[in-house]
Amino acid sequence: MSVRVRFAPSPTGYLHIGGLRTALYNYLFARHHGGECLLRIEDTDQTRFVEGAEENIVDICRWAGMEFDESPEHGGPFGPYRQSERTELYRYYANILLEAHMAYRAFDTSEELDAMRDRQKNAGIAAKYDRTVMRSEYTLGAQETQRLLDGGEDYCIRLKVPASGDIRFSDIVRGEITVNARDIDDQILMKSDGFPTYHLANVVDDHLMKITHVIRGEEWLPSTPKHVLLYKAFNWDMPQFAHLPLLLNQDKSKMSKRFGDVLAKSFREKGYFADALVNFVALLGWNPTSDREIFSLPELIESFSLDKVNKAGAVFDTKKLDWMNSQYLREKDPSAYINSIQQFLQKQNILVEDSYVERVFVLIKERISFIHEVPHFADYMFTDSYAIDEEYKAKHWTSESPEIIEKILPFISSIQDFTHDTINTMMSDFTKEQSIQSKLIIHPLRLILTGKPVGAGLYDTMEVLGKQKCVQRIQNFLNN
RNA sequence: GGUCCCAUCGACUAAUGGUUAGGUCACCACCCUUUCAAGGUGGCAGUACGGGUUCGAAUCCCGUUGGGAUCACCA
Description:
Elements: E1 4-7, H1 17-32, E2 36-39, H2 53-63, H3 87-99, E3 103-106, H4 110-122, H5 137-150, E4 156-159, E5 166-171, E6 175-180, E7 188-190, H6 198-208, E8 213-217, H7 224-234, E9 240-244, E10 247-248, H8 264-269, H9 274-282, H10 297-303, E11 314-315, H11 318-331, H12 338-347, H13 354-364, H14 374-377, H15 390-396, H16 401-414, H17 420-434, H18 439-450, H19 458-465, H20 467-479
Parallel strand pairs: 1-2, 8-9, 10-11
Antiparallel strand pairs: 3-4, 4-7, 5-6
Helix pairs in contact: 1-10, 6-7, 9-11, 12-13, 16-20, 17-19
The structure holds one RNA strand.
């Protein structure tokens, strides 16, 4: 049987980095096995709907290189793929449960529920719906229940969880898990607004959509027994479960709890490459070997396997992500990034040729981690009003410097073929002849031409800058 | 607090009963060098603790401690 998995986010916010990894693992697993990966939007809570969230989820997944085989956008044989468009289905299945006495109606108000929890808290017992004392079908009786129903009273449908007995299920990542039914609440299946809760909807949909593997975050582990109960109540085959370790903040708390810079889109905005982010995130909680760090998406697909997924949560370390980004940056074909660099430059009203931008980029790419660093890191390549590093000046611009620079200027001016090699030859001839150390020239020159102690090789820098600029800057500097 | 999950260098991880416990990021040193990087070499640093099982335990079992998740008419 072909593998079918789903990524099932709720549009209650923009996709965060943990969600991106969940989507990725589903996608890698499906592609590795030649199966399908579908997107299902779990929008059964209309009160938490966030405008643009679904678009953001789709947008980010596409940016990351993932295309879903079935989705709200593209449809598919098991649609619709938005739960809000499937409500009759859930109602139908909830009724089946009702008729089989696996579920029941409850009429409690939220105040009554709060009061119940207070009593339980004061008594020092675990909060749990007590169907024998609350306003459920069981305490009300058939007649009263019918009367309330006829009167249009609000009610919800709850799962009738057995009083005791072990509920077991197997998780690909964690092995056998056993929970006692006494610790499980009579979960609400249908809310009084007619929408299902996650628990009902995801079980019904996973079954109807023929999902073979449920791959989701570890936060779902505690509610999985409820889902198991539902599969049993319907007498459906269960999918296999794989609960992924959480992505953690530095303080080890769940990463998605921090908001803002944890959104996938803010990583894109900060200038991380999609393939670098994907590579990094894939290796958080899963590792094929550990003798290698760089994997393209096809390579991740090739080597992905759920049984290599870790159990323990993984701290998200931005430093390593930055390193990975720099690895990708230097391997990329520079022409692919000229446009984005141009955009940064144009914001500063700098207009230069693409070919020049490419030469500068190639020159400095090993010294930066992000594309957007280019205009600032190499400002002297784009403007004449770059800052002079005073510390560098104090150290290398000595009393002899003006004389030396003045002496070498004609030689620089006279170079016809202004390239690294020619400049190099000229420079070493000069230092030999004058018997001075080359650093007495190189540092002052670098200072004059770039203003900074950091940068590419001086002669390469000069070559890209061009003779005219070099000579001009030296003259200006000496005159001031 | 109840329930569940988890535990190898600071971080990501490898080692599925036998390794001097390996790699990567970060950090430090040295080399290279035309500055800064990159690169190369080396270093620092870990099996949470206590018991078992075994000829042998990071690995299996039990306990302790620590961390996390979850306990809504949210997903």
